[in-house]
Amino acid sequence: MATKLTKGKMYLFEWNDTYNFVGWHYDEAIAEKEVKTFQKTLGFFVKQSKTFFILATHHNLNVELGFPEWGTLSYIPMGSVKRITSVS
Question: How many other C-beta atoms are found inside a 10 Å radius of the C-beta of residue 45?
Answer without folding.
Answer: 21
